[in-house]
Amino acid sequence: MSRHTYSSMNNTPDYELCCDGCGGRFNSHDDSFYSWPVLCAAAEAEGWQLGSGASGRHLCAGCRPDPPGPSAVGERGRLVAL
């Protein structure tokens, strides 16, 4: 399973998303780790392939079998604001 849940100091859940292929961790660089749906949306925008639910297969952009398209990903592979 690639979803991990931790409890922060104020008893708020923190979520972590790891690749089932290489074990790499998704780094959101914002506060999306407080919400599983928001974290998943951020990961998908950066090329991750996510299975359904928390226990589905989750693959980073480097491990997914079909490479992500350039739709929402900037030239450095980071989400860009329009």
Number of extended strands: 4
**SSE pattern, N- to C-terminal:** EEHEE
Distinct helical segment count: 1
> Helix/strand-derived class?
alpha+beta
SS strand fraction: 15-25%
User: How confident overall, as mean pLDDT?
Assistant: 76
Instruction: Please mark out the parts with pLDDT under 50 across 5 or more consecutive residues, or reply none.
Output: 72-77
The biggest beta sheet is recorded as: 2 strands, antiparallel
Kindly provide the radius of gyration, computed on alpha-carbon positions and rounded to a whole number of angstroms: 13 Å
Helix content: 10-25%
Strands ordered across the widest β-sheet: 1-2
The dominant shape is elongated
The separation of the N and C termini measures 34 Å
